[in-house]
Task: structure prediction
Amino acid sequence: MTETRRLDASTRQPTQAWSGNGSDMSVWEHLRKASPRLNHNPNSYEAQQLNRVSLDQCVKCTICETQCPVARVTELFSGPKYVGPQAERFRNGESVDHTLDYCSSCGICTLACPQGVRVAEINSMARAVMKQGHMPLRDRLITQTTLEGKLMTPIAPVANWALRRKPIRVAVEKVVGVHRDAPMPVAQRQTVQGWLKHRSGPTPRRSDQPARGPVIFFTGCAGAYFEVETSKKTIEVLEYLGFDVIVPKQGCCGLAEQSNGLFDGARAKIRALCEQLSAAGREPTIVSSSGSCAGMVKHEAHEIMGVEDPQVLDVGARLRETSEFLLDLYDHGQLPTDFRRIDSRFVYHAPCQLKAQGMGMPAIRLMELVPGVQVVESDENCCGIAGTYGLKKEKYEIAQAVGRPLFEKIKATNKEFAVCDTETCRWQIREGSGAKTVHPIHLIHAAYGLSEIDSPQV
Amino acid sequence: MRDVVVVGAGLTGLVASIRLRRAGLEVTLVHQGIGGLQLGQGTIDVLGYRPERVARPLDELADFLAAQERQGGPSHPYAVTGPEAITEGVGFLSQLVGPQLLVGDVHTNVALPTAIGALRPTSLYQPSMADGLVSLDPAEPGALHAGCRVVVVGIDELKDFPAQLIAGNLAATDLPDGGRLSTRAAQVSFPARGSEVDSTGLNIARALDDPARRSEFARVLSAVVEPGETVALPAVLGIEDARAFPELRAQLGTALFEIPLPPPGVPGMRINEKLTRIARAERVEIISGSALTGITAEADRVSEVIVATSGHDTHIPARAVLLAPGGFESGALRLDSYQQLSEPILDLPVARPSGELINDSWAREQPLFRAGLATDTDMVVLDPRTGGPVHRNLHAAGGILAGAQRWDEKSGEGIALASAMRACEAIVARCEEKDHD
Result:
C-alpha cells in the first residue's frame, strides 16, 4: 500500500492560494476593486501583485540582506529586505525607493529566505512598475537576444572583430550605455539549426543502449547562436545514450526582457516559445543546457509575470536542465558510467538562476562520476553578470566587484579551466578570470570519448 | 536511492548531515532558506536556567529532568537523548569548527554580557568573546571580575548596539563573586564603506576583514580607550578572516571582547558558513530553496520524500529521513486561532502539554512551546496517541522536538546537537543493517 502524506497544495503555496483556485473572485480581483488607482496602471498585474501575500511572511530576520551579492559590494543598493518586504508596505503602485534599480535579479534573496517570502519576485515586479514610462532605449535593445544572434551569425568574423575594437566599444557605451569592457558573446559562423541541417546524421547510439524515444531540446537564444558547441554536445550525448532528439524551430524565452521589466514583450515571447516546444510533442521531456532560460520557463514567467497559460505551465513541468536530466538517469541506474579518465581539478560555479530552481547542484555529482575529476564548488552566490545587468555602463563596476572573489578562486584553483551552466555567466567568468569556461556537458561529452576535453571547441 | 534525506539546514541539519556523510552514507540535505544559526548568538547553550541559573549543566541535568518529569507533559528531549549524547554532540561540533571558532567546556557554564548589558549563561563561546567571560564559580574568577574596568564602545554608524545602556546595566549587575564591574560608555565613528551612515554589523565585519581597515579601526579605538580598561565591542570583528580579532587585540594592546548583536549576527554566521562549507566540500548533496512538500510511505516506512523543485516535484527515494526544520519560529509547527496545533507539511501528530497552551503573562513560560514531535530514543517520530512509531525510518531532531522551553532554559543548541547524535547513530545502524540484508 502506498500513501502520500501531504497537505493540500493550495494551503501551502502562497502563489497558488493567490490565484483564487479558479473561483470567479480571486484575491487579486478584490484588490483590483479595492484599489482603482492601480487599475489604471498599464502593468496592473505587476502593480496588483505588489501587494503580494508572501511579504506578510517576512519576519524581518534580515538573512536575505546577509546573502545579497550586490549589497555586499556597494552602498548604492540598500539590499533585498529594505527595497522589498520593507519598502513594499509604502508602495501603492509607485516606488518610494529607486535604489531598487540596482537589484540584479539574481534571486539569491528568495533562495536564502527561511520563511518563503518571494523577495526577488516582489522586487522584479516593483522594478517593472517603477521603470514604466522611462525605460532606457538600451534596455529595449540588449534584450533582443534572438535578433542579436540573427544579425551577428552571418557576419560573425566582422561582428567579433568589431566587438574587440576599443573605439567602437567606446562609441557603443556613449550612445547605447553598454559598458566598453563588458563581456560579449563570440558570434559563430553556424547556428544550431544550420549545423543540424548540414551534419551527416544523428550521433550513432551506443551499442549497449536501448532506443529511449524522443526528447525535445530547448536551445535558448545563446545556445542557438553563440554557445553553439554546448547545444551540439548536448544533442550528441543524448543521441549517444539512445534518445531521439527533436530540435524544433524556437524563439526566445523573454528572460532578458523580463529581468529588465519589459513584461509585455516577455509574455508574448514565452507563450510563442512554449507553443513551438509543445508542437514538437505533448509527452516528451524537454531538455535544456541553458540554465537561466530553463528557470524562466519553469517558474519565473509564472511567478514574476503572472503567466497562467496552461501550455507554459506544462512546458515548465516537463523541462529539465541537462545535468538534472542525466543525473536522474544515473539515479535510476540508466546512465552508463564507463567514462574515460579526465584528470582535472577545477572550479564549478552554479549560476544564481540555476540555484533558484531548487534542484541543488546536479552537475557536481554528475561530473564527479568521471574518474579523475575533482570539482571545487565556487561557494560564491553570484558571478555578477546577472543576465544583462553587468553589461550596463552604470552597473559594470558593481558586477565586476561581485564576481571578483569567484575570479580569484578560479585563478587560484585552475586558471585554465572552469565550469558553469549558463551562457552569460560563462562570458563573464571567461572575461574576469581568463579561464576557458564551459557547460558541464563538455566534460561528459569528452568522458564518453565523443571529443577531447582539451580540443579547441571546448 | 539516497541513504538519508535531512530536512533543514540549521545547527541540527548541518551537523547531522556531516556526521552521516562521515559515516559513509549518501546524504541529501533539503532546506528552504538559510538555517537559524545566524539568528542566534554564535554560542552553544546546553542548559542555562532550571529556572535558577545553572553553573554545571551536566551535573545539574538529573535534577532538572526530575523536575520536568514531575511537571508532566511531553518528555524533555534531554530525557530522551541522555547526557552522553550532549557531550558527544558538543564534542563533534567543537572538532568540526575548531578552536578558532568555539572554545569552552560542556561541563561548565560561563556568563557573557549581552547587547542590553545583562549576563547570559552559555557553555561554549567564540574566542573573541573570551575577554568578556564572567565565571559562575566564585572560587575561579573569569576574565571579567569584581573591580574590572570596562569601556563599552559603540559605533556611530551601527544602530543596534546601545553602548550607554549596556555600560549602565553591566555596572548595576552583581557578579557571582559578589562584586561589580566599573564601566563607562564611549562612541567612535567608523563608516564601513564610503560615507555610509547606517551600516549593518555584517558590513562593518566585512570591512574589518581588510587588514588596512583593521589598523584604522585600532587607531580610532585607541583614542577612546584608557590604559587598563577592557574594551567591549559589538560582534563585528571580521567574518571571513580569522586573524581579524587576534590582530586587532594585539594592535590595541588591551583585553577586548565582542558582544553578539540582535540577528542576523556575525558570530552565528561564522559557524553557519564554516559548517555549510564542510558539508559542501564533503559532498553532502545540498538542495537549497526547496520546500519539503510530502513523503511517500510504503507499509510502515517512508520510501521517498517529495520536494518542490521549480516547475515540478522531485521525488527522492531514501532509506531514512531526518526532520530538522526547527520549531514554531521556522513555521515548522503551527497553532491556528482555534488553538489547533499542527505540523503543517506532513501533518504529523503533535505532542502537547495538557491544559492551556497560552497564558496572558509575558514573564511566565508559555506552555505552547513544549508542543512538538515526540520520539523514541532513536529519535523516531512517535504518535502520542498510540505510542507507536509513525514511520519506522522517520526521525526528528532539534527545535521541532516536544518537551523543552528552549529560550527560557537556554538549551537550544544542546538539544539540537544531542538529538542529532542520537538520530545519526540510529540511522547509521539501520543503513548498515540493510547492507547486510
Strands of chain A lie at 2-5, 213-218, 243-246, 286-288, 319-321, 344-349, 373-377, 417-420, 436-438.
